Amino acid sequence: MTLTCRDVIGILDDYVDGGLAGEELAALERHLDGCEPCRAYLATYRRTRVLGARAGRVEMPEEMRARLRAFLRERLG
Amino acid sequence: MTSDDHLLLARAAAGDAAALEALMTRYSGRVFRLAYGITRNQADAEEIVQDVFLQLTLKGGGFEGRAAVGSWIYRVTANAALNKRRGKWRELETSLDDVLPTFKADGHRDGARAFLVADWSRRPDEELLSGEARRTLDAALERLPEHYRAVLVLRDVEELSNEEVAEIVGDTVPAVKTRLHRARMALREILTRRLGPGA
Predict the structure, then answer these.
(1) pTM of the model
(2) What is the ipTM metric for this complex?
(3) Is A39 in Cβ contact with B53 (below 8 Å)?
(4) Which residues in chain A are contacts of B183 at CB distance < 8 A?
(5) Residue B81 burial (CB < 10 Å; 0-12/13-18/19+)?
(6) pLDDT above 60: residue B93
(7) Which residue among A13, A56, A75 places its CB closest to the CB of B37?
(8) What CA–CA distance (Å, rounded) separates B2 from B53?
(9) Contact (Cβ atoms closer than 8 angstroms) between residue B85 and residue B39
(10) Burial of B148: CB neighbours in 10 Å, binned 0-12, 13-18, 19+
């Protein structure tokens, strides 16, 4: 099995999430060995996933928590 | 749903402040993260958090046998956030086609080689999560359609499985996977244009 860059990028999510196996995994890794653009794509794709996750870990502001507490106490009597 | 949750809900519905506090400690962070992650607006997220908690406490012990509070909360929050976003700021959510990779007829990537091999992945968090890079990331997140943001938050922030996310957003696993991959690729492309060669 031989994969093109288009094929590799199409299954990169499965690769990064550990969902590839067997010949498909071997073919992807063979392609990566010989393709600098796809290696750069993979490295930046992985980093993007981590950055997106870190950026999304927002804390609820304390004053919002206080307003939620007051709102629920009022509504629940 | 654990029996502990059942007990807390019943007590909170009866006006027990300590039980309400325990429920808030357990669940308010994730409700806010998802609501804000989808709406990208603090005021909208706050309204959703209040509404979800009101529904939760009024529901009290009325959860059916095996229903889990955690997944119920995600589902109600995602629905509320997606409904709130409907019709808002649509003009900012243009098609992602121009931020997805393009290919030549032979399957190779299209574009200048310096851009294709640009690898900014080893730059430190402090650089990538602050200043101009952070503003680029936030703008890129805001550009994603809300259904994409919902999947991105549930998978990459909350670390749920594709199957769990599909159940929460009421879609198929392949649709969830496609949206997640497109969302990550769009963010990657926008970041690379900002951080790559010539930036």
Answers:
(1) 0.91
(2) 0.94
(3) no
(4) 52
(5) buried
(6) no
(7) A56
(8) 18
(9) yes
(10) buried
